[in-house]
Amino acid sequence: MEMGFNVWIIIASLILLCSCIYFEVKRKNKHWLAARIVSTILLISSLVLMAIPTFHQHKEVQNKNALTVITAGANLDSLSKIQGKKYYTDPSLHQNLKGKANYIPDLAYHLAENPAINSLQVYGYGLPNEELKKLKGIPLNFHPAATLSGLIACNWNGSLKQEEVLTVQGFYQNNTSKAILLKLEGFGTTLDSVSIAANAHHEFSLKHQIRQNGKALLQLIGLTGKDTLTKEFLPIQSFAKTSVKAVMLTSFPSFEYKFLKNWLYEQRYPVAFRSRISKDKFSTDFLNRDSLSLANISANQLQKEDVLMIDQNEFENISSSTRQTLMQAVGKGLGLMIWVDEPNPNGALQKRINQVENLKDDKVLHLNIVDKQERLSDLSTSLKWHLNPQKGQQALINNQNQTVALQELYGLGRIVYTTLQNSHQWLLNGHQEDYANYWTALINAVARKKHTAISLNASDSFPTINEKLSLNITTEGTNAPAVKYQAERLTVNQNLLYPNHWEVQVWSLTSGWQSIQINKTAKDFYVFEKQAWKSIKLSQTIQNNLAYSRKTNIEAIKASTNEITYRKEVSKWWFFPILILSASFLWFEKRHYAKS
To answer: Domain of life, per the record (predicted)?
Structure first.
């Protein structure tokens, strides 16, 4: 079709050229005849060359076994410095790369059709993770784009209990010359904020205690003056606080136990408290619950509790039968928390933990909640001992490289050990939030697990509209759940290792809160717009390409270069000046002749 069009253009142009030359020759005034004929030829020829694509032979030296791929973020001005033919796989780049690179609709298919290609040169933000997986180990040399500005990492506990503290943490890259105010907004007010210095890579942490119940949509906003640089949504779900029934057994009265008992009461935990006064005398207290007998702890009674807190002396002084009853209850799901003191070679704990003397002279603890990577306020104390995690034990609270609290599984239950004896100093110093975070972390780790019948988690941190999303479902039984999404029944895939774990694939056509029915129980998840969290997604793409590049070790591939010759289209702008000059001469000559 295009060839036929070109032929007709040439025929019409030849007829027009012959006619113009004929009239020029027949004109009475023969002045400047040769110049007029040359100008006419140039005018019509430039018109033809602007209408019909023209090509010339171009030679380049390139690695004949390498494929150069341009992705979003590549510096378009420097493409001419890249040797060899260039390609792109993202159709959104067509307008910017037209005439500069060739489009490949399916990279995996192109590589399969060209088995001689043994490496890739990738420029820009990199290939999507889906395409990296299809490369099947083909080495990749990655040339990343310039450093991104904005949010490059962010996570938050989007599913939490009422009155639990929401923590939003991440990294912000500020490439501007002005400081940025990063704010967490929601419920009609600013919940927390932090300042990001100019030209800095800043780690941030924003917190707020959630008192509302249900779904909510918060905002993370970055401002410089009146200009908004960043605005992202943070979906959260807050569930009603579940009651944790606690029993405290102490060998002596102390401020640590008193403050903890009062805090548990204020947080509406049902608490039964027993403190030893003498060998057979105790003081008891019952808060948010009815009284019960604490003189002798029975198995039936422990079955109704969620966590038992006890100090080392009391644990070693109770009778062996009571201790056996207690450990049997832990094996059935009860949580046990023990305040650890000095090592006792003959004690009941000696075989379970390894206490190490603190040889540092530091009088200030820099504590960190391990699983949340959350830093607590400094605490003034003289810590004599720390714990050395053994096989099967996991650190919960660290003081720099020293473990202050750890946990271990025991049957269906858990045991938590802590050497910190004066956490109440946080309250005395006005750091109520740090005290709450510390004890919430320990209690959540150790308390009896009350499993929900169904749980739902998205495999992607930022589910996006019009993209495939995997949802992970956990059920109590091993029967396949009935799953419906947007009134359609979905197929579930069972996990090979965990028979009560399932996976479904959904494709959301709308953004916002989405509901999925699992065994007639509604579960909610949030789907973001296409442009949401763009800087984080691009940062992750860069990291994925860097990791793939390091893994495939492109340096092991020997470069084999050759000179290639291919047709390159001549820019139509080269013919435009010829058109203007020749047309101007003919116009000028005719005007000049008319005056003569």
So the answer is: Bacteria
Annotate 175-240 with DSSP letters as a single string. -SSS-EEEEEEETTEEEEEEEE-TTEEEEEEEEEE----EEEEEEEEEEETTEEEEEEEEEEEEEP
Residue 580: in which H helix or E strand, if any?
A: helix 576-595
Q: Are 307 and 244 in contact (CB under 8 A)?
A: yes
555 band by pLDDT with thresholds 50, 70 and 90:
low
Contacts of 215 (CB under 8 A, 6+ apart): 235, 236, 237, 513, 524
Strand residues in 350-475 grouped as ranges (E): 355-357, 364-365, 367-369, 374-375, 379-380, 385-387, 393-399, 402-410, 413-418, 454-458, 468-475
Tell me, what DSSP letter sits at residue 377? Answer: P
Task: Work out the pLDDT band at 565, boundaries 50, 70, 90.
Answer: low
3-class DSSP state for residue 414?
Answer: strand
DSSP string, 304-343: T-SEEEEEHHHHHHS-HHHHHHHHHHHHTT-EEEEE--S-
* pTM for the structure as a whole: 0.64
* pLDDT for the residue 35: 79
Is 303 in the same domain as 335?
yes
Q: Residue 50: its pLDDT value, please?
A: 78
Question: Which residues have a Cβ under 8 Å from the Cβ of 79 and sit 6 or more positions away?
Answer: 70, 86, 100, 101
Residue 490, helix vs strand vs coil: strand
Least confident of 2-6, 25-29, 137-141, 286-290: 2-6
User: Phi, psi (5° rounding) for residue 571?
Assistant: -65, 135
Mean pLDDT of 512-517: 96
End-to-end CA distance of the chain: 49
Task: Say whether 128 sits in a helix, a strand or coil.
Answer: coil
Tell me, yes or no, whether 269 and 232 share the same domain.
Answer: no
In this structure, what CATH number is given to the domain that contains residue 341?
A: 3.40.50.880
Query: Does 335 share its domain with 391?
Result: yes
In angstroms, the CA 62 to CA 562 distance is: 6
**pLDDT category, 406, cuts 50, 70, 90?**
very high
Q: In this structure, are 50 and 65 located in the same domain?
A: no
Grouping H, G, I as helix, E, B as strand and the rest as coil, residue 144 is strand
- Shared domain for 298 and 418, answered yes or no, is yes
What average pLDDT score do residues 88-113 get? 90
Q: How confident is the model at residue 168 (pLDDT cuts 50, 70, 90)?
A: very high
Q: Give the pairing type, strands 150-156 and 140-144.
A: unpaired
**Residue 454 vs residues 283, 457, 471, 483: alpha-carbon distances, Å:** 42, 10, 13, 12
Closest CA to 236 of 207, 195, 203: 207
Decide if pLDDT at 61 tops 60: no
For 62, the enclosing helix (H) or strand (E) is strand 55-63
- Dihedral Cα 538, 540, 544, 549, nearest 10 deg: 60
Query: Which of these, 163, 160, 150, lies nearest to 235 by C-alpha position?
Result: 160
Tell whether 308 and 380 lie within a shared domain: yes
Task: Record the tokens describing residue 208, joined without a space.
Answer: 């707020």
> Are 89 and 66 a contacting pair, CB within 8 Å?
no
Does pLDDT of 559 surpass 80?
no
Check: CB of residue 437 under 8 Å from CB of residue 376. Answer: yes
Q: Tell me: pLDDT of 571 over 80.
A: no
